[in-house]
Amino acid sequence: MKVCIVNKSIIVFLLLLVFSFESFPQKISENKISLKGKWLFQIDPDDKGVEQKWYISKLNDVVRLPGSMLDNNKGYDPSLDTKWTGSIYDSSWFFRPDMAKYRQKDNLKFPFWLTPNKHYIGVAWYQKEIEIPGNWEGRKIELFLERPHWETTVWIDSIKIGMQNSLSTPHRYDLSKILKPGKHTITIRVDNRIKEINVGPDSHSITDQTQGNWNGIVGDLYLRATSPVNFDDIKLYPDINNKSVRIVFVVNNITEENKTIRLKVEAESFNSDKVHKVEPYIEEIKFKAGKSSFEINYPMGEEVQLWDEFNPALYKLTAILNDESGNIDKREVQFGMRSFTINGTRFEVNNRQVFLRGTVENCVFPLTGYPPTDVESWERIFKICKNYGLNHMRFHSWCPPEAAFQAADKLGFYLQVEGPSWANHGVTLGDGLPVDQYLFDEMNRIVDAYGNHPSFCMMAYGNEPAGKNQVKYLTEFVNYWKAKDNRRVYTSASIGRSWPLVPESQFIVRSEPRGLPWDKRPQSIFDYYDRIEKYTAPYVVHEMGQHCVFPNFKEIKKYTGLYKAKNFELFKEELEKNNMGDQAEDFLMASGKLQVLCYKSEIEAALRTKGLAGIQLLSLNDYPGQGTALVGVLDAFWDEKGYVTANEFRQFFGETVPLARLPKFVFKNNETFHADIEIFHFGKQPLYKVIPEWEITDSKNNIIAKGSFIVKDIPIGNCIPLGEINFPLSQFRNAIKLNLIVSVANFKNQWEFWVYPADLNINYGDIYFTNKLDDKTKSILENGGKVFLNAAGIVENGKDVVQYLNPVFWNTSWFKMRPPHTLGILCNPEHPIFNYFPTEFHSNLQWWEILNRQQVMNLELFPPEFKPLIQPIDTWFLNRRLAVLFEAKVLNGKIIVCSSDLQNNEERPVAKQLLYSITQYMLSDKFNPEYKVDYSIIEELFEKKERPPAINFYTKQSTDDLKPNIK
Questions:
Q1: What pLDDT, in 10s, does the model give residues 31-75?
Q2: Which of 203, 300, 873, 910 counts the highest number of beta carbons within 10 A?
Q3: What is the per-residue pLDDT across 572-616, written as a single tens digit (0 to 9) for each?
Q4: Nearest-angstrom CA–CA distance, 143 and 185
Q5: pLDDT digits (tens, 9 = 90+) for 82-96
Q6: According to DSSP H, which parts of 395-504 are helical?
Q7: What is the pLDDT confidence band of residue 322, given thresholds at 50, 70 and 90?
Q8: Are 150 and 206 in contact (CB under 8 A)?
């Protein structure tokens, strides 16, 4: 390798050569023939095309490229016999009698993922006639296919050129020796079957769970002619400390002669306020025939601008090769001057600590089924992420196209790129299967294609592999890349807590530091330090969150493209069948508020964790596969759902977040409210001479108390103490909800808390309070009396429904009804039963005492119009009509039934307050239930009898199979 080091002593001399360069007669710098448009087409389901030499025949159909078969309405209608790419762990849909109507050919609706208009797995052929101009003679000619899916084989006329199978990078074929001036036929065979190379059927690069296993070619398609001596590759290695960039060139001389070439390199910033033109570098070099590599060290000057999330300054490097015949090859490369390194347990960008606030991108593009290849589409996504406080994205088992890197570069967004593999579910890693070598080859292709982008900061093989030899394999993988390319940092895989670690990994993406400790009374003192303190490398939380929300049926109309939300249609119809169709929007809003509360609580615990390096949510937007995982505060289109705004979300997930450590959120009025206030700050620079302020307000935003802490400089970091708040609560005689707001500079955060009277006298008056539905209860109702039935522990119809405060995790189909089964509650705070119990229409932290691990009642036999007072929202796969509290006219009397324990309330002030509010209502003239219910229906709730299970999965498979079998 020739190493060329430029210095200032020769720059002046070299600059004199510029004029002679530009005096050379210029021939063609680059010619392109676009291949977009009409192509002949033919499907080959029996894979007979090669044997029958279709490449010399005229194909019998027509499509347009770029596009997929689905874009062109080619393929087969989805059916019960469709061979999908993806795991299905819930087989119940195929067998349940109540699902039979959705298994009909003209009404096919399944819950597993979105339904494509057409489906095809196999071989398809694409063919186009072209004409090569005479002035391309002697030039390098390349066929460029930006994103085929996924194996292509190319023929020119009758000559086979070769096969490529990258899922992540363009397929590029050198046609220089084949394409002569004149007419030719290009034939491309595309195969999207899983064959010898199996990356895993649930890999987001190929699975029907997300983008779909489509057949076609998208993005740019063209033939390009370049100079006989041309750039084959240019790699840039910025060195911010020395304000220079090492440039490695690979030059291809396709002539059979030695060539003297003049190289000119120059760089200029193009997206920052101050334009910076770097002095050019010029040199004359002799090349032999074939490929040669050499490098130079290119000084960027004292005015060099660095790239990061706050100042994403980019440069365009222009490299020109000019031979003595006047042939020119010109290449432009976008790059940024940045370092992404590790210091202890933290990442540093340009020697400044950074905390990754990220989401997982799962290749969810419901209009097309494949990722966009235009920069604008990716800018929209990254801008939305930044509006929600994020600075990072992990691509789960797939790699995006060039446009995503360009957009992330422009906006200052850090990317973790992965190979196209989730080597699990029928395939393993490290056991000698073809996927082992394929992934090494593929990651090299990814780095060659996208490695110059400053946003490309982190890399992993992929997601959660199986394989008894995975550690050995991944150790080799990490060591290989650490030695080869220092422009980013490397880890083995993104993994759950049961996977083995690879000690050689430079950072960890694992799931130990996540989850909410809501098996006990909620508080915000906890963090995850005890789960990461033993690690010496940066630790990024794997797939944090996964808190579900009810489906947004308004979203159905958005599916105007190639996929339809038949899963949503099924859920909607089942909700309507169970007489709750009119509550769909309320269920969405109520469950959404709980979802946000869960994300806030979990994220803040991570921000309070000393030494943690970052978070990757799963995810900011919904995941429409794996049974439909509605875990996003945004829908699959990256649009808001209506229950949280970007500004509200960024309060607890931005670059600077005030934090409060509260020992609890429920207080008695004989206590003192206490909070320790700290701050998380990973902004552009420290905050100087700020005065942190706090206030406590009521539900009408009246200020009850306020104060401030001492003037303080706030460095980059977290767990930075600001002060403490002590506020006596004796002034509050009645139950009240309050709000603590902490402001630091322009950043604020807030927490609701509740105060209840310590002494509360419950008067039952003429109410008959009981724990069982017996003869006396019936007699009182027959005689027109009032009954309060506290039915905790005796419910039979509904006891299979497991309720926690936190909602469904991921979804109950993929995890086979793993609890919890509910999505919070819906209630009407304006109902007089809540006159003495301050609440919103949804769950919040005070409801932990009432809901967590408390029974619910199944109202399947109640009148269709019946609505309970406290209504748990069931998993959308079953949509059972549930209740924790309801009222009814029964016989000649009136009854209220509660399945939550309100009686044992000495250390449960919320339960006591709700009981008080209920009894006050029952003693008032407002107690007049709307619905009349037969006594036998009430009785059935508590009847011990054999009840069929709510769901039978008809398979022993489960996602426990995701766990590696490591001995």
A1: 999 999 999 999 999 999 999 999 999 999 999 999 999 999 999
A2: 203
A3: 999 999 999 999 999 999 999 999 999 999 999 999 999 999 999
A4: 13
A5: 999 999 988 899 999
A6: 402-411, 434-450, 470-484
A7: very high
A8: yes
Q: Where does the pLDDT of residue 211 fall: very low under 50, low under 70, confident under 90, or very high at 90 and above?
A: confident
Q: Which two tokens stand for residue 883?
A: 């209740």
Tell me the C-alpha to C-alpha distance, in Å, between residue 270 and each of 311, 451, 742, 834: 13, 20, 40, 61
Residue 808, both tokens: 């469904």
CA dihedral defined by 44, 47, 50, 52, rounded to 10 degrees? -80
Q: Is residue 788 within 8 Å of 768, Cβ to Cβ? A: yes
Q: Contact 611/346 with Cβ under 8 angstroms?
A: yes
Asked if pLDDT for residue 959 goes beyond 90, the answer is: no
Q: Indicate the SS3 state at residue 888.
A: strand
- Given a contact cutoff of 8 angstroms between Cβ atoms, the answer to whether 234 and 251 are in contact is no
**Banded pLDDT at 30 (limits 50, 70, 90):** low
Region 949-965: what's the mean pLDDT?
67
Report the candidate in 790, 793, 822, 788 with the shortest Cα–Cα distance to residue 805: 822
Cβ-contact 119, 82 below 8 angstroms: yes
Distance CA 846, CA 597 (A): 12
pTM of the model: 0.95
- The neighbour count for residue 750, using CB atoms within 10 Å, is 18
pLDDT band at 958 (very low <50, low <70, confident <90, very high): low
**Which residue in 96, 123, 121 sits closest to 110, CA to CA?**
96
Task: Give the 3-state DSSP-derived string for 657-670, with helices as H, strands as E and coil as C.
Answer: EEEEECCCCEEECC
> In 791-881, which ranges are E strands?
822-827, 857-858, 870-874
pLDDT at residue 230, rounded to an integer: 95
Q: Quick one: angle between helices 402-411 and 434-450, nearest 10? A: 50
Judge whether residue 8 has pLDDT over 80.
no
Residue 727 pairs with which residues in a beta bridge?
Answer: 673
Question: Alpha carbon of 532 to those of 158, 468, 716: distances in Å?
Answer: 60, 25, 20
Mean pLDDT of 256-280: 95
Are 923 and 839 a contacting pair, CB within 8 Å? no
284-298 burial: b if 16+ Cβ within 10 Å, else e: ebebeeeebebbbbb
Distances (CA, A) of 137 to 167, 428, 513, 643: 32, 48, 61, 62
Residue ranges of E strands in 462-588: 489-491, 508-510, 539-545, 563-564
Distance CA 888, CA 896 (A): 7
Burial per residue of 24-63, b for 16 or more beta-carbon CB atoms within 10 angstroms, e otherwise? eeeebeebebebeeebbbbbbeeeebeeeebbeeebeeeb
User: Is pLDDT above 60 for 964?
Assistant: no
Q: Which two tokens stand for residue 137?
A: 């003679």
Q: How far is CA 91 from CA 813, 814, 955, 957, in A?
A: 9, 10, 6, 9
Q: Tens of pLDDT along 637-660?
A: 999 999 999 999 999 999 999 999
Where are the extended beta strands (E) located within 50-139? 61-65, 67-68, 115-116, 123-132
> Rounded to an integer, what distance in angstroms lies between the CA atom of residue 466 and that of residue 468?
7
CB of 263 closer than 8 Å to CB of 6: no
Q: Which of 839, 650, 645, 842 is nearest to 754 (CA)?
A: 839
Cα gap 636→621, rounded to integer Å: 6
Rounded mean pLDDT of 741-770? 97
Q: Which two tokens mark 868?
A: 């309970």
Encoded tokens for 297: 């060290």
